[in-house]
């Protein structure tokens, strides 16, 4: 296997790429599978775990607007925010069962359904959102979307959750040692769990909707999420420290129930596909703007914010590297090598 040096990858990045959102998301799996019945009157239930004011919520509203406009009001999208239909896993299972039509989860909790998604959970994999776009919209991201129908799901493309940072109630995380003994909520994802264990933390996987209460009651010391989420979910009210670890990037994947998809006409499928891509471009843009805005607003709250030096981030990456090596084998060396080769190309 080609030697993977996460440190080299980390430092080689920061290239200035233009926004590379390829329309390649209209993957082969979704083409030509529909009936020829035109556009029917339909109500489409779409749920997410985050709030309406979050870039994901705003992206979903944009999707609704585009679908309703393109279908002349025949396709109605009913939106559900803040996990009112359940958390990522529960909603994804509802899609598989055909009782919900759309959800947009983080790829991380989906590893139990399709393990290959775990490649995106390697800490310090991406340096910039544009690198993530290039991989997700390129051959690797598409290959994973094309596998989804095997699991009763149709993937229409990737949106952005973003770079994650750690908050906690005990101490500022400035060095790798500062993780020791911290009880941190993670997503239900074994790469995240093992990476935090390797750093000496005590990771506690839990669905997102339980996090605020667990922080408030001190059942856990901290959690990790992008800045927009830390702001939107008011985690700053129950956390003392926000450390800008930028330790991993999380994509959202736009999912449709295959059971539902197979009942749609080609015209209806095209509307949903195009709307997911168009709203996705909007959502990614908003997510990047909101990342900066959220930081400015978080600075005005009581939470103490600290930066991490590149040197310390490298030390963290070194400690976690054995976890990456172990999971690379599990997810498939070929796939992982392809990922690093693509990243090398992007960074040249
Ligand atoms: O709607 C998406 C959210 O449910 C979730 O993915 C948020 O990043 C998240 C987390 O930490 O669970």
UniProtKB/TrEMBL annotation:
InterPro entries: DctP_fam, TRAP_DctP, TRAP_DctP_sf
GO BP annotations listed: transmembrane transport
UniProt keyword terms in alphabetical order: Signal, Transport
Domain of life: Bacteria
Any one Pfam family match given in the protein's UniProt record, by short name: DctP
GO cellular component, one term: outer membrane-bounded periplasmic space
SUPFAM superfamilies in the cross-refs: Periplasmic binding protein-like II
Signal sequence extent: 1-26
Sequence similarity: Belongs to the bacterial solute-binding protein 7 family.
Name of the molecule in the record: Putative ABC transporter periplasmic solute-binding protein
């Amino acid at each position: 296997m080609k030697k993977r040096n996460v440190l080299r990858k980390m430092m080689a990045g920061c290239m200035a790429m233009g926004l590379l959102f390829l329309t390649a998301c209209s993957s082969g799996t979704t083409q030509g599978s529909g009936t020829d019945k035109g556009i029917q009157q339909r109500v489409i239930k779409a749920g997410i775990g985050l709030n309406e004011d979050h870039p994901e919520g705003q992206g979903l509203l944009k999707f609704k607007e585009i679908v309703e406009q393109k279908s002349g009001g025949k396709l109605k999208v009913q939106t559900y925010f803040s996990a009112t239909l359940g958390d990522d896993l529960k909603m994804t299972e509802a899609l598989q069962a055909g009782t919900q039509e759309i959800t947009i989860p983080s790829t991380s909790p989906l590893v139990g359904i399709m393990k290959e998604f775990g490649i995106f959970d390697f800490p310090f994999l991406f340096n910039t959102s544009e690198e993530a776009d290039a991989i997700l919209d390129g051959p690797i991201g598409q290959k994973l979307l094309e596998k989804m129908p095997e699991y009763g799901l149709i993937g229409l493309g990737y949106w952005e959750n973003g770079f994650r940072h750690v908050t906690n109630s005990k101490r500022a995380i400035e060095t790798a040692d500062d993780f020791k003994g911290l009880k941190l909520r993670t997503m239900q994802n074994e790469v995240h769990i093992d990476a935090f264990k390797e750093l000496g933390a005590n990771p506690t996987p839990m669905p997102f909707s339980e996090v605020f209460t667990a922080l408030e009651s001190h059942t856990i010391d901290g959690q990790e999420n992008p800045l927009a989420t830390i702001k939107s979910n008011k985690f700053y009210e129950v956390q003392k420290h926000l450390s800008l670890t930028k330790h991993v990037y999380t994509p959202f994947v736009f999912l449709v129930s295959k059971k539902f998809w197979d009942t749609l006409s080609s015209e209806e499928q095209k509307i949903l596909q195009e709307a997911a891509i168009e709203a996705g471009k909007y959502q990614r843009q908003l997510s990047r703007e909101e990342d900066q805005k959220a930081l400015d607003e978080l600075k005005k709250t009581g939470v103490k914010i600290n930066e991490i030096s590149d040197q310390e981030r490298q030390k963290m990456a070194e400690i976690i590297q054995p976890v990456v090596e172990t999971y690379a084998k599990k997810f498939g060396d070929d796939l992982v090598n392809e990922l690093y080769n693509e990243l090398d190309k992007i960074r040249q």
